[in-house]
Amino acid sequence: MTQVATHSSSERYIPAKNEPYMSDGQISYFREKLTGRKAELKAKIAKIIRNIKTLENVQADILDRSNSYIGLELEVKSFERYSNMLDQVERALERIDEGSFGYCELTGSEIGLRRLEAIPFATMSIAALEEFESSQNPIYAPRRPLYS
What we know:
This protein is mainly alpha-helical and 148 residues long. Helices cover 57% and strands 0% of the residues.
């Protein structure tokens, strides 16, 4: 007999292994977690946009201009990283609405609560991810002689 984890409004719900996978409680928990992450990312993106606008001023001194360009490059990279993460979070929320959240997109198997707790927008189980990465071409091709 399995027990279903319950919670009252005064205590924080944490998904438990002894309840059905992707139960209503777990779905609500991850929806709330993803919605919070989405709000954080939007705030970070808005802050970066404000920072980029302040860095756009043309500096007369070459060192100041160089520092400004470096700062601008860092802000743009942060913007891209947070924008990509926001896209992943939004896709995870869509998977919740579709009913496919928590299941591997490649195998259909459970992603697992521990992995989703760490990366709530994960799309693959660890086993599928390892298989996918091992099937990819190596990053560096082995050296071949220039002359044969």
